[in-house]
Design a protein that fits this description.
By secondary structure, this protein is α+β, with helices and mostly antiparallel strands. The chain has a 5-stranded mixed beta sheet. Strand 16 and strand 17 form a beta hairpin. The protein is globular. The two termini are about 15 Å apart. Bound molecules: glycine (GLY) and manganese (II) ion (2 copies). The site of one manganese (II) ion has 5 residues, from loops.
Length: about 450
């Protein structure tokens, strides 16, 4: 059961909130579920996503709800359930979380605010600060950084309930990945592979945690490729797509090849798979994530050397800046309610930033690895002409086998991405667990 630890999760939220409120000098907090984003000059909204701080407490879908939190009191939740015949207004029923709140149902946001008995110095977190000031919340209490920094910091340490949601999201995502691989092996197009994925997960596109990346052949080299071409018969598939469970995401990438792919590229895929597992094995409390990222560059450099693409080993390749054109993104990021979850570069509970070193400007995770964190480990190796071009002339030109680069470039790229939970002694690979159980 994925919800058995929910009571402990809410109790932990309450405890951590009380510490955060005391440190930031507030008596209470109102979190708003958020308002839909309406396209400019249109009457249509973007798919709604709740304020992440709200989703951290309760997986109640839909906009406008208000959550009022105070030390020593049960959380009060005003659920906005409008009278409306345009959209389905499903009754709440009896969800697993409801018993943990003083829950009231109201027809509109105005009534929701009236249900809250705001007293003392109250902070507001949400996207409608003008609504909060109209109810007497002070300007310096609107999304106050001293408080949100602490809430963001805490979000990096997942409760047992959150781990269960993330593991379930990996299982759902893996189901989709298996169907996608099958479709690819049968010669399907990018669009058909995407459709096989969502069908197997049992969701629509707007339920995905991020737009699917389904790249056949050369499109695999576009890191956030979102096209959906309708011609099939590819020799390589790079597919990066996750699933959501109770607002928690998985973020999974696999690269599959057919026997039409160049044997040298197939060996690169096998090599990247092996080094990805070696990198996962390094994940344990106490070491900076940056060490894993640097190790990834070494290992990718060594793999390129073994394949004959680079003429120097990993250490020298990294020192001479020739692994970066093949691996131009960070090894991974925190994962949770947001796919690129908050706090990866946060310095302390009070806030501040740990910037990445200049040679790795895109690295999202500079924090020390600690028990309870969940992050991705996603090394990649791509043939991106824009990044290779500067090396085709000049000081590093001789370090590459350009003929081999050009032969392999139509295969696009490779990325293998798993979701990893840090435990006291090491880690759990949630994605590989899901694969083993499938
Ligand atoms: N799916 C985006 C990423 O892997 O970060
Ligand atoms: Mn990722
Ligand atoms: Mn991804």
């Amino acid at each position: 059961m994925t919800t058995k630890h929910y009571a402990a999760h809410v109790a932990e939220r309450q405890r951590k909130l009380e510490t955060a409120l005391a440190a930031a000098g507030f008596d209470g907090l109102v979190i708003q579920a958020g308002a839909p984003f309406t396209y400019f000059s249109d009457d249509q909204d973007a798919p709604f996503r709740p304020t992440p701080h709200f989703a951290h407490w309760v997986p109640l879908e839909g906009p406008a709800h208000l959550l009022h939190l105070r030390p020593g009191e049960r959380p009060r939740l005003a659920r906005v359930a409008p009278e409306d015949y345009w959209y389905e207004q499903a009754p709440l029923g009896n969800p697993y979380w409801a018993a943990h709140f003083d829950l009231v149902e109201v027809p509109d946001v105005e009534r929701a605010w009236r249900e809250l008995a705001i007293q003392g110095r109250t902070a507001y977190v949400g996207d409608r600060p003008e609504e909060a000031t109209a109810r007497g919340i002070l300007r310096d209490a609107l999304n106050p950084t001293a408080l949100t920094a602490r809430l963001d910091w805490d979000r990096a340490y997942k409760s047992a309930y959150e781990v269960d949601q993330l593991a379930a999201a990996s299982r759902a995502g893996w189901r989709g990945h298996l169907a996608a691989r099958r479709a690819f092996q049968e010669g399907a197009s990018e669009l058909q592979i995407h459709q096989a994925y969502v069908e197997a997960v049992g969701c629509t596109d707007k339920d995905l945690p991020y737009e699917s990346i389904v790249g056949l052949d050369e499109k695999g080299a576009i890191l956030h490729y979102c096209g959906k071409r309708t011609t099939g018969g590819g020799k390589v598939l790079l597919i990066d797509v996750g699933a959501q469970v109770n607002r928690y995401a998985s973020d999974i990438t696999r690269t599959w090849v057919t026997d039409k792919a160049d044997p040298a590229f197939r060996e690169l895929v096998a090599g990247l798979e092996k080094l990805q597992l070696e990198l996962c094995a390094l994940a344990q409390p106490g070491i900076p994530y940056l060490e894993l990222h640097a190790a990834a560059h070494h290992k990718i450099g060594d793999l390129l050397h073994q394949a004959g693409i680079l003429k120097v080993g990993g250490q020298e390749a990294l020192a001479r800046g020739v692994t970066a054109p093949f691996f131009p993104h960070g090894l991974g990021h925190f994962l949770g309610i947001q796919v690129h979850d908050v706090g990866g570069r946060q310095k302390s509970p009070e806030g501040g930033t740990l910037p990445p070193p200049p040679e790795f400007p895109y690295l999202r995770t500079t924090r020390k690895i600690e028990e309870g964190q969940v992050f991705t480990i996603e090394p990649g190796l791509y043939f991106i002409e824009m990044l290779l071009r500067p090396h085709r002339a000049g000081a590093t030109k001789e370090l590459f086998d350009w003929k081999l680069v050009d032969r392999l470039s139509p295969h696009g790229g490779i990325r293998i991405e798993d979701n990893v939970l840090v435990t006291r002694a090491g880690h759990r690979n949630l994605t590989r667990e899901a694969a083993a159980a499938a």
